[in-house]
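Question thread 4412

I'm putting together a teaching handout and wanted feedback from people who do this every day. The idea is simple: show students a protein as raw sequence, then show them the structure tokens that encode its fold, then repeat with a second protein so they can compare. Below is the first pair exactly as I plan to print it.
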Amino acid sequence: MNSNSRPKYWSRTFDDADINSIDVGWNYMIQNSKFNKNTYDTTLKGYGNSGHTFGDSLTENERKAVIEYLKTL
């Protein structure tokens, strides 16, 4: 929910048990560059990380409140 924190390169395991239920999403590792074939490279067409910027105007506490609310749905 903070577009400025989206990494350019990142990777994750494909283990179904590697889901983070607290932060809601996959656990991932930020990479400094294209490390290997499993590294997501958001500079490539179709892999962009631009998304929406809705959460950029929210404070950190407001972001957490929205996430906690969404967990209840």
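The second pair follows. I'd like the answer to focus on this one:
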Amino acid sequence: MPSWLAALAISIAGCSGGSPAPPRVLVLISIDTLRADHLGCYGNRIVQTPHMDRLAAEGVVFDNHVSSCPTTLNSHTSLMTGTYGHTHGAARNGFVVREGNTMLAEALRDSGYATAGFAGAFPLHTRFGFSQGFDHYDAAVKSRSGDQVNDRVLRWLDGQDAERLFLFVHYWAAHYPYTPPPPYDRMYRRDALGIRGTMGDIERVRDALASDLPEAGRQSDALRAAYAGGVTFVDAHVGALLDGLRARGIYDEALILLTSDHGEAMDEHDEYWDHGRTTYASSTHVPLIVKLPGGRLAGTRSSLVASNVDVMPTILELTGVSPPPAVEGASFASVFDGGPTEPRPPAFSEATKPHPATVEPGAWTNRRNDKAVRSGDWKLIHRPRTGETELFDLGTDPGETRDLLRRPTRAARQRARKLLTALRTWSERAGAAARRDASDESLETLRALGYAGGE
């Protein structure tokens, strides 16, 4: 038995009462481009996600978790810093995380955790500064299969003798192109269409939907099925990782969080099979599952509206580490001990597309892109480029199909005015300098992953 595992067993034996001891093993799993509504534990009755559903049954499911940005690097940096994009400065893929940010891995390393990160795709490569604070960081040059990610994670784990561990594990299989291997590629399809989910297929379906062609609906359904296959495929990778933790005797007492950086627009809201351009729920409603040590609160749910900027301060509170001063998120650790959870700050989101051709000196790169604010069941979306504003009651309209400002009541106008004021106040805080890694190599690698323009 490794010395760190023996120490864990001793610690567990000595904590039979009182407040739970800070967890010795932390595992943060991020599944790129995973919509919450494609998991069984979030109500999907078609897509098979047995391993994530089991994790949910053994943990706490957050029904209203919001991504701050529908783009990989920006959102993951918010997850790791507890700050929004216009504070941490990693505007979108291809930009660089500023060294002045304090990352979750740094805070945990400085408090005695051995830290390791395993990224399944290039947007989180070391050249973009995302590896700050990791003792060991293993990132894909382009993209990496879930099996390869798991192999690296478990080999690293087997070589450890530290008493406290933090693992960050990132999977890519749900991201476009939607080309999982057999049997996942045809698991949810019965059509005879020659659509395999490649980037060429995606472009063709985008064009068909934009042109309202007769075949657009069937083609989009084929892509939806291919995406669902990718979700089940990545669920198998998650299951293999969790089985690896069980086999090593650390699953039960580990704090495990599973989430995503953003979702994926399909044929909704005129953002076809993409992410980054809008802040609708299709791109910003993502899962958050938290399994506590010892299985505390297993099988429970929380309706609390939380943002991914809240994850870092929550983890730090659970581990007894003080958050850095720059943190903008608010810990929701009180959910786990029955404490008060209200009032909560609003959750904000910001799009990253379209990419501006030029940016005024000192101006935030994304300042004119779509923005959203959510407070309770109410969500307001504002488009600075056009001045358009929409208001939704997600309690009755989770798909955001009924804009309450089309024929607004007095109450709707008042609600919209209050939310818009909060959104503008938040937007005015923008001040982070954003720096791109504009090397030809980086841009070409991002294009190869399907990012038009290399970002």
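Top answer:
Good format. For the second protein you could add a caption like this: Confidence is low (pLDDT under 50) at residues 3-18. Residues 75 and 261 are 5 Å apart (CA to CA).
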